[in-house]
Design a protein that fits this description.
- Keywords: Oxidoreductase.
- One of its GO terms (molecular function) is coenzyme F420 binding.
- This protein is of the alpha/beta class and about 220 residues long.
- It has one domain (about 1-210): Rossmann fold, CATH 3.40.50.720.
- Helices cover about 40% and strands about 20% of the residues.
- It contains eight helices and ten strands.
- It has an eight-stranded mixed sheet, sandwiched between helices.
- The longest helix has 17 residues, at about 190-210.
- The radius of gyration is 16 Å and the shape is globular.
- The chain starts with a strand and ends in an 11-residue tail after the last helix.
- It binds NADP nicotinamide-adenine-dinucleotide phosphate (NAP).
- NADP nicotinamide-adenine-dinucleotide phosphate (NAP) binds near residues 9, 12, 13 and 76.
Length: about 220
């Protein structure tokens, strides 16, 4: 499968690409295609050192969206609307779009969940995409550094929400292929805010308890 990552040069984009480009064709997008090519080369080299053949290339955000069968929006929330506004909506037509986006602000040294008027990043992003898009939230609660440390087993829970059951199952199947991730059905998109809000919780707990890169495992 081809997976396009908008904002693919960031921490989550690169981390996700590191973990899946041995199984899927990854197209990293950026505002600056040269930066995306650099990221893709870095990922392929890291994998090559381990004898793994990574299928990853860099390009513009629009090309990444166009090329992907699935598209991940891996941007800080405040950059999602302007970035999507600059991409031809046809690039997303009928596709599964994954949002790991958590809207947060830092105030007095701690992180607050700060959703838009729609109630969550997911519900706001849904309005920015063509109706035929199947929006799925996933990977919201795993710290980027865990993705990037290839020796780190990702034995975490991935709470997945969507209003499209088939799309949700396809994203859960993708998550299942990564390390020891445990995808679970967290309900419809209207529940996405609950999942998004868990990330500032983990960051605050990490800060207050001198812990690092907390991620969530439910059992
Ligand atoms: N970091 C984590 O641990 C973590 C964990 C779970 C979920 N998330 C969520 O995943 C999403 C991505 O997080 P991240 O940490 O990967 O983000 P990031 O590294 O801060 O940024 C991702 C990419 O956004 C692009 N960008 C930066 N400023 C921009 C602007 N003004 N306009 C358009 N694009 C811009 C950059 O790409 P170019 O410069 O190449 O265009 C950058 O590489 C966020 O919504 C976050 O809430 C993060």
């Amino acid at each position: 499968m081809k997976i396009g990552i908008i904002g693919g040069t960031g921490d989550i984009g690169e981390g996700l690409a590191l973990r899946v480009s041995d199984k899927h064709e990854i197209i990293l997008g950026s505002r600056d295609p040269a930066k995306a090519v650099e990221s893709a080369d870095k990922i392929k080299n890291t994998l090559k050192e381990r004898g793994i053949d990574g299928n990853c290339r860099g390009t513009t955000n629009e090309d990444a969206a166009k090329a992907g069968d699935m598209v991940v929006i891996s941007l800080p929330f405040q950059h999602v609307a302007p970035t999507l506004a600059g991409i031809n909506p046809d690039c997303f037509k009928d596709k599964i779009v994954i949002s790991p986006v958590n809207p947060m602000v830092r105030k007095n040294g701690c992180f607050l969940y700060c959703p838009p008027d729609e109630g969550s990043a997911a519900l706001a992003i849904k309005k920015m995409l063509p109706e035929s898009c199947k929006l799925v939230t996933a990977f919201n609660n795993i710290a980027a550094r865990k993705w990037s440390m290839l020796d780190c087993v990702l034995d975490y829970t991935v709470a997945v929400t969507s209003d499209d059951t088939d799309a949700k199952m396809q994203v859960m199947a993708l998550a299942q292929q990564i390390s020891k991730l445990q995808p679970v059905d967290a309900g419809g998109l209207e529940l996405a805010g609950i999942v998004e809000s868990l990330t500032p919780l983990t960051i605050n707990i990490a800060q207050n308890n001198k812990l690092k890169d907390l991620s969530i495992y439910m059992r």
